[in-house]
Amino acid sequence: MADLADAAGVSEQTVSSWEIGRAAPTPPLLKRVASVLNVTVPDLAPIPDARLTLSDLRSQAGLTQADAATALGVSATVLGRIEKGRKLYDAERAALMADLYGVNIPKIREAWDRDIETRATRVRNL
């Protein structure tokens, strides 16, 4: 644990908190840990493709919402609305996200649609 903490630039207590589920690493830290362990972020935090959301894809790319928003040329508020299913699919923005997140456009589309459907379901169930 000490070697991993040193390599990730965090304390042993922080790694311990991750291991027991008391805390979670930020996307950039998760990416750094994956790199240190010579695995991918999805290896460390597997999510079935059928459940991936846009925020999951962003996190797997090692990006915070603020960093991704800046790279996409939008505000964090706009990206948050997209990730919460509050914005309709936009092919141009999806292509930018796919490039930034290192996935294909259909994967972005599926996650985008899933986020919209999840929000619609929550609204219906109010």
Explain this structure.
With 126 residues, the chain is mostly helical. It has two domains: 2-44, no CATH class; 49-124, 434 Repressor (Amino-terminal Domain), CATH 1.10.260. Helix content is 67%, strand content 0%. It contains nine helices and no strands. The chain has helices spanning 2-8, 12-19, 27-37, 41-44, 54-60, 65-72, 76-83, 91-101, 105-124. The longest helix is centred in the last third of the chain and has 20 residues, at 105-124. The mean pLDDT is 93.
Secondary structure class reads: mainly alpha
Largest sheet: none
Percent helix range: 55-70%
The name of the CATH architecture of the largest domain is: Orthogonal Bundle
List keywords for this structure.
single chain; 126 residues; mainly alpha; 434 Repressor (Amino-terminal Domain); 2 domains; 9 helices; 67% helix; 0% strand
Task: Lay out the secondary structure.
Elements: H1 2-8, H2 12-19, H3 27-37, H4 41-44, H5 54-60, H6 65-72, H7 76-83, H8 91-101, H9 105-124
What is this entry, summarized?
With 126 residues, this protein is mainly alpha-helical.
